[in-house]
Amino acid sequence: MANTSDFRNGLCIEFKNDLFKIVDFQHVKPGKGAAYVRTKLKNLKTGKVIDNTFDAGEKIDIARIERRQYQFLYKDENGYNFMNSETFDQINIEENMIEGYEFLKEGITCDLVFHADNEVLLSCELPTSVELEITYTEPGLRGDTATNTLKPATVETGATVRVPLFLDAGARIKVDTRTGAYVERVK
């Protein structure tokens, strides 16, 4: 059993018979009255974010979660197939459990988050950035590096990313999987 002083971003707690991850929290000590903690909690099953206020010192149940590394193998009609890097066990995951699934490339290593007590899969987390090749974009013009104007480009996974004007098809870029934004060109 823990209390509200143990809150930190990313902590998983059991709340209202469900598992939630703390997205954001703030300790508030008003001039009059008791202190409290204002939080944003993300439901790990539905993905819905709720606001909740806890009294300072209130007891909470911390959920034990485990992160295991799995390698993405392929996608078929049943979903996305991953393999454990150590035991070679394979698991099939539905698309809605993967944040940023449009950037999944064969061979990429992801973290699968499991509830340790009952071995239930909670989510699949991609690395923060991946290197992808541009398969199609409008041709760039020489000297288009002075402005911050962006154009759409299709990458090898089929996702569309906004890239600078000077990039052409065949260029390798780094993409942030959390936002889908272009980060830099890879040489």
A few lines on this structure:
The chain has strands spanning 2-3, 12-15, 18-28, 36-43, 49-55, 59-62, 65-76, 79-84, 90-93, 98-99, 109-115, 120-125, 129-137, 150-155, 160-164, 172-176, 181-186. It is mostly beta strands and 187 residues long.
Would you write up a description of this structure?
By secondary structure, this protein is mainly β. It has 3 domains: 61 residues, SH3 type barrels (Roll), CATH 2.30.30; 61 residues, Nucleic acid-binding proteins (OB fold (Dihydrolipoamide Acetyltransferase, E2P), Beta Barrel); 58 residues, Beta Barrel (OB fold (Dihydrolipoamide Acetyltransferase, E2P)), CATH 2.40.50. The protein contains no helices and 17 strands. The strands form 3 sheets. It has a 6-stranded antiparallel β-sheet, with no helix packed on it. A 6-stranded mixed β-sheet has the order 9-8-7-11-12-10, with no helix packed on it. Strands 15-14-13-16-17 form a 5-stranded antiparallel β-sheet, with no helix packed on it. A hairpin with a 4-residue loop joins strand 16 and strand 17. The protein is flat, with a radius of gyration of 21 Å. The N and C termini lie far apart (50 Å). The mean pLDDT is 88.
Descriptive terms for the model:
187 residues, single chain, 56% strand, OB fold (Dihydrolipoamide Acetyltransferase, E2P), 3 domains, 6-stranded mixed beta sheet, 6-stranded antiparallel beta sheet, SH3 type barrels, mainly beta
